[in-house]
Amino acid sequence: MAADLAPEEFRRALLRMKREGCSILVSSDDDVGTDRASQRTLGAVPSYSRVLVTGDEDGLGDRLPRGVTTDSDSVSVVNFRDVFAESSDPQTRADGLRDTVCDAVETFDTGGIGPGELRVSVDSVTEVAGEVGGDRTLDVTDAITDSVSGVCGMAYYHVDADDEETRASHASSCDAEVEVRTDGGTVYQRWHLPERGSTGWVHL
Q1: What is the pLDDT of residues 148-174, one digit of tens each?
Q2: Residue 158 to residue 62: CA distance in whole angstroms
């Protein structure tokens, strides 16, 4: 897909999404790209509030911005495998994950959060869909997006680049999609904004 989104229009669109709240789908072809994308999208300001939804807590240190740890008061970690372990029923699992993440978002909603200062990262939507099904996963992410948007926050949903079904279903409900790829150890990104166009590949 050719780059047809003017840099200034792209910059204005990003500022608007940050100001108003948004949901962004991030697809990556390997862990290196996912780590880099997480570090960037979670924001460099240590005081930002962050909710990390993951099935593997061991690698979280590589996905947090510099100066931020999982022990920080501004970080809440939700292990979806722990949530799913409470029930074998897919709908109950999905409801439990939705409620747990939305509750975590609410703990940071103290009225003092500015636009873009709450970041939620779900890694990965592909794994969640494998556990509870695609339709239930979409219901969960839609609910999370509503909760995050209520405080003008930013929700990032990570998906495997080769998971075309999950990418397609979630791209239509997100404000933007970011493709991330790694080439020779260098990580690149390309943005797609619905009805506006796409950027070229740039260094991430």
Answers
A1: 999 999 999 999 999 999 999 999 999
A2: 15
Return d(Cα 23, Cα 198) in angstroms, integer.
Answer: 17
The pair of three-digit structure tokens given for residue 158, joined into one six-digit string: 């990570």
Instruction: Answer left, alpha or beta for residue 142, where phi above 0 means left and psi between -120 and 50 means alpha.
Output: alpha
Total-model pTM? 0.95
Q: What is the DSSP string of 158-196?
A: EEETT-HHHHHHHHTTSSEEEEEEEETTEEEEEEEETTT
Q: Which of 1-15, 17-31, 168-182 has the lowest mean pLDDT?
A: 1-15
133 conformational bin, left if phi > 0, alpha if psi -120 to 50, beta if neither? left
The three-class DSSP label of residue 110 is: coil
How far, in Å, are 4, 95, 113 from residue 19 at the CA level? 24, 29, 12
pLDDT for the residue 61: 86
Q: What is the rounded CA–CA span in Å between residue 132 and residue 18?
A: 30
Measured distance CA(171)–CA(70) in Å, rounded: 29
Residues in CB range of 182: below 8 A, 6 or more apart: 28, 29, 30, 32, 33, 188
Position 17 scores a pLDDT of: 95
Other Cβ atoms less than 10 A from the Cβ of 98: the count is 20
Catalogue the long-range contacts made by 189-196 (C-beta closer than 8 Å, 24 or more residues apart). Answer: 189/37, 190/3, 191/5, 191/10, 192/1, 193/5, 193/10, 193/13, 196/5, 196/9, 196/10, 196/13
